[in-house]
Every structure is written in C-alpha cells, then in structure tokens.
Write a structure and sequence with these properties.
Layout: H1 7-12, H2 34-48, H3 50-60, H4 67-89, H5 96-107, H6 111-124, H7 129-144, H8 148-160, H9 166-182, H10 186-204, H11 210-230, H12 234-250, H13 254-267, E1 293-297, E2 311-316, H14 322-338, E3 343-350, E4 354-355, E5 358-359, H15 362-375, E6 381-385, H16 389-393, E7 401-405, E8 411-416, H17 420-435, H18 446-449
Parallel strand pairs: 2-3, 3-6
Antiparallel strand pairs: 1-6, 2-7, 4-5, 7-8
C-alpha cells in the first residue's frame, strides 16, 4: 500500500490547508493514456517521498531533529502536493489519473477534493490494490468531514476486499471507534474496537517496533473495555482486558502487561491478578527470549534453554531502584523455600556506568554489584546484560519487573512493581508452575546447572 495512507497519517488526520480544486471536468470513462498516467504517478510520488527524502538529507548533514523543522517540512509537502494536484486537474484527468490526483489531494489535506475525486475513481474501479488504497483515504476524509455513514460503509468495503494492510485497517478502525466514542454511540463503537484488536494482534506477529505494537494493542483493549463498560457489559469489558493480559505474557511484553493490568484494576479494583492464568498456556506460545550476559555473579553462564525442566524467575532490577529493594525479602524467601523444588531465580541488571552519581568503569561497577549482593544477603544468581537489548526483548519499561517461565521454557506470568499485591500473585504463580509436571527429560539437579550450594557468598562463578 502507498505510504501516504499508512497508520501514522491515518491517525494524525492531517492539518487543514487551503488548497482547493478548480473543479475541472473530471472523467472516468475512456482508456488511460500511458504517458498521462505516468506523469500523474510521478507527480504523486514526488510529493509522497518529499518528507523521506528531506529526512535522509538531514541525516546525512547531521541536522538535529526539531519539531518546528518537522512541521515546516510537512507543510512544504502539503504545498507541493497541492501544486502537483493542480497540474493533473488542469488536463481533464480520467481513469488511473484520478487515483493519483485523489492521493495528492489527500497529501494536501484537501478533504473535499480527495473525496470527490476518489469517489469517481472507485465508481469505475472497485477491486485491486489501487481501489483499496483509495478506500483507506476516503475513510480518513469521510471521518474528518463527519460523514460517518460513508466512512463506515467504505471501511466495510475495504474489509471485504483484498489486498489488505493490517496497518491501514487498524488505523481506519481506530478512527471509527474514536468517532463513535465521541458521539457516545457505544453499540457502533464496539465492533470497530474489536477489529482494532484483531488487526493489532496480526501486526504483533510482524517486525513492528515493540513500543508501537504495545500502544496499538493497549489502545484496542482500552476501546473495547470502554465500549462494553458504557453498555453495562462489565464482564465482557473485563474479559477483553484479561485476554490482552494473556497476550502480553505470550509476546512477552512487560510494558503491555503493565498497561492492561492497570486497566483491569480500574475496572475491578478487587481483581485476582492470577485468574487469567489459571490454565496452562498454549504450546504454540513463544519460548522465552534468550539473552546475552556480559558477566555472571554466583551463577554459571546459562541460556534459558539450559534451564528447561525448572521454573525460572527473571527479575529485572538495578541497585539504584528503591522499589527493587522492597522485593528482596520475598526473593530471598522464595529461593530458600523452592530452590530444591526446581525454582531458579536470576536477577538481571545492566551496567549503568555510575554509582551514587559517580562515574565508574565496568569493573568497578561489577565489584560494587558483588559487594551489594553480599550486603543484602541475596541468595540467588545475578546476570549483567551486555546491552539494553535484553530489556527490549522483554519490553521492560520499568523496574522491578519479573517474568516467570515454566518448565517448558515459556513465559507464563509477569509482575510490574513491588507492592504486596503483585508479590502475592507472583508467589501464587510460582507454586502453581512448580506443581505442574515438567517435560520429559528436562529435570536437572543444581550440580548439573552449575549452581553453588551457597549463592550468598558473593563470589563470581
């Protein structure tokens, strides 16, 4: 699909400009002139690529990003699109020329022009990629002009045709859900919110940037739960949020989990945080991501896959994190109680290059970590990540944050925070996973794992 109607522009809704058509005699019938179509396409692509070309130039010249500069470049793109549209409109365009003219009006934020021209194009061309892209632009401008019936029917046509871009579909469904929310028409809002969720889940399986992925997933769950809540269907609202909490765990994403758990507690302050995880996760769920450690303390180097047959608690923390210290007594107690039943606790931290505001070398920081471990009587092993990549793989947005991995190597639960409620839920899930049978052949002794009998001595293995 063309870049001009992708999610970012769909959501921004574009700012208004004064570029207007001179109302030329537009035609749909008749064979396209190859030369005229190519000229129209070239004029459109010049405007469509304007921002990307300028950003590439800015990067090469090392010009720092500036919101005012961005706004200026976007306005320049709109002005260029309006000029190029006027060129095509002056030649009585028809057929595919109308498609490129409509997209130029779209880039220029000329809603009247885009709707008028793309309606004519779609009257003659109803299938294929160009028609789908035209529909997505019509949806944007129909919502902008408050033409809700046209926007909704065009979106329905898009959903019935191929090809489809889930990015575009999410953006259009988001516009629809938001429009009906503002009108307090929650019956019409809810199916669009559900379609948002479906599109977001499909996009989650692609290489979409994790922060964008999580925001899209959360927004869909928020919209669904809000629509159902306003309709008096509280149980359905809670079910939608619990579904997204489970999905966050399978990704895994600590950030998404934190967002939807907070939403759950808004809907039901007395909610049991473990209810959604009463059953065993599907075997199709992803294995926990592996991570690279620069250093290990009181723990032989391990991969997550080396720990199959054990329940693994990955605890993301830092020495400067006050709430992290509140979790230490619980972690020590779980280590003492369950280490012989197959629990492995790994504290994951990073080299931050500073201690108490003083810049230090990695070796100085490592020495500090060893001493910190001894002073706080932490009886489980530490790993120091090589980079921020480990946090990114698990979408760790705040600490403390813990990921509980079952004996088959799949994340089954997440906690975000240090309060007693989170700790109680984590303790309950640790016991549940330890009571589940492990995969055949995966049981390992502490000796096979390379663990020390006394992990609290503070000596690195």
């Amino acid at each position: 699909m063309h870049q001009c109607v992708l999610f970012g522009i769909l959501i921004s809704l574009l700012t208004s400009v004064n570029a207007q058509s001179s109302s030329p005699n537009l035609k749909v019938e008749g064979a396209d002139s190859a030369g005229a179509v190519n000229k129209a396409k070239s004029l459109y692509e010049e405007a469509d690529r304007y921002i990307a070309n300028h950003y590439e130039d800015f990067n090469q010249r090392k010009i720092r990003f500036d919101p005012q500069l961005e706004a200026a470049v976007r306005q320049e793109q709109k002005d260029l699109a309006a000029r190029n549209a006027a060129i095509i409109a002056s030649s009585s365009p028809s057929g595919t020329q109308l498609y490129y003219l409509g997209l130029l009006y779209h880039l220029a934020d000329n809603s009247d022009g885009a709707l008028r021209v793309l309606r004519q194009f779609l009257a003659a061309t109803s299938t294929g990629e160009l028609a789908q892209t035209a529909r997505s632009a019509v949806v944007v401008h129909a919502f902008k002009k408050n033409l809700l019936s046209e926007a909704e029917s065009t979106l329905d046509q898009y959903a019935r045709q191929q090809p489809q871009s889930q990015q575009e579909r999410y953006g259009m469904e988001s516009l629809a859900a938001d429009a009906f929310y503002k009108r307090r028409d929650f019956d019409r809002m809810s199916p669009h919110a559900l379609a948002m969720r479906n599109a977001a889940k499909e996009l989650a399986a692609t290489k979409i940037e994790p922060d964008n992925r999580d925001q899209m997933l959360f927004k869909s769950a928020l919209f669904i739960s809000e629509a159902y809540s306003k309709l008096g269907k509280k149980e359905l609202a809670i079910d939608a949020v619990e579904d997204m909490r489970r999905f966050a765990v399978t990704l895994p994403s600590g950030y998404l989990y934190k967002l939807v758990t907070n939403r759950l507690l808004e809907l039901n302050p007395a909610a049991d945080l473990t209810n959604a995880f009463a059953g065993k996760v599907s075997i199709a769920s992803r294995l926990a991501p592996e991570f690279d450690a620069a250093e290990w303390i009181d723990q032989a180097p391990q991969k997550i896959s080396d720990l199959r047959g054990h329940v693994v608690l990955l605890d993301f923390w830092a020495t400067w994190c006050g709430p992290c210290r509140f979790t230490f007594p619980k972690l020590r107690a779980w280590q003492n109680k369950y280490q012989n039943e197959g629990l492995v606790i790994l504290g994951l931290t990073n080299f931050y290059g500073a201690i108490d505001g003083r810049t230090v070398s990695p070796q100085e920081e490592l020495s500090y970590l060893r001493d910190f471990k001894k002073r706080n009587h932490l009886n489980y092993g530490f790993a120091i990540s090589k980079s921020q990549a480990t946090n990114d793989m698990y979408s760790v947005s705040s600490i403390p944050m813990s990921f509980l991995i079952d004996r088959s190597g799949r994340v089954r639960f997440i906690t975000a925070g240090a309060d007693e409620r989170q700790a109680a839920a984590l303790g309950k899930m640790i016991k549940k996973l330890l009571d589940e049978p492990g995969e055949s052949g995966h049981g390992k002794t502490d000796a096979e794992m390379g663990r020390r009998g006394d992990a609290g001595t503070g000596h690195e293995r």
